[in-house]
Amino acid sequence: MYTIKQAAALVGMSEHTLRFYTDKGLVPAVTRDAHNNRVFSDEALNFLTVIKCLKGCGMSIEAIKKYVDLCLQGEDTVQERYKIILAQKKVAQAQLQEAQKRIEYLQHKADNYAAILAHHTPDTMNPASWPGRSVG
């Protein structure tokens, strides 16, 4: 069993976010101790890990709640949950491809700046170096 501080550290979320998710009913395996503090089980951490992933894919809180509710309904909902996970996998793959494009672009820019610093190429991002343009 984990305190909210421990759970937040283990799943890489803020305590505020954990409170928000538990208040929204997204983490069914959370209980309360004698002082009414949230107590997180390993099952709760598993739910939080899934929630973090789904949220990272851009899934809404409402859609995540629907997924959690389906999980709680049991084996009769496995097919629907499977479809949800496959759809989110597609979203994550698209995000990865976009991130890869950004990395490639940034590498191109970094290479360009390295060449500028080595005096091999002019600084084309500086308007003063544009042909026919004088600044100042």
Automatic annotation (TrEMBL):
Coiled-coil regions, chain positions: 82-116
Q: State a single Gene Ontology molecular function.
A: DNA binding
Q: Which InterPro entries match?
A: DNA-bd_dom_put_sf (IPR009061), MerR-type_HTH_dom (IPR000551), MerR_fam (IPR047057)
User: What are the UniProt keywords, alphabetically?
Assistant: Coiled coil, DNA-binding
Keyword DNA-binding assigned: yes
Query: A Pfam family in this protein?
Result: MerR_1
Q: PROSITE patterns from the entry?
A: HTH_MERR_2 (PS50937)
Matching entries from SUPFAM superfamilies are given as: Putative DNA-binding domain
Occurrences of domain HTH merR-type (ranges): 1-70
Lineage top rank: taxon: Bacteria
Q: Which PANTHER family is this protein grouped with?
A: REDOX-CYCLING DRUG-SENSING TRANSCRIPTIONAL ACTIVATOR SOXR, TRANSCRIPTIONAL REGULATOR, MERR FAMILY
The protein depicted here goes by the name MerR family transcriptional regulator
Q: Which organism is it from?
A: Luoshenia tenuis
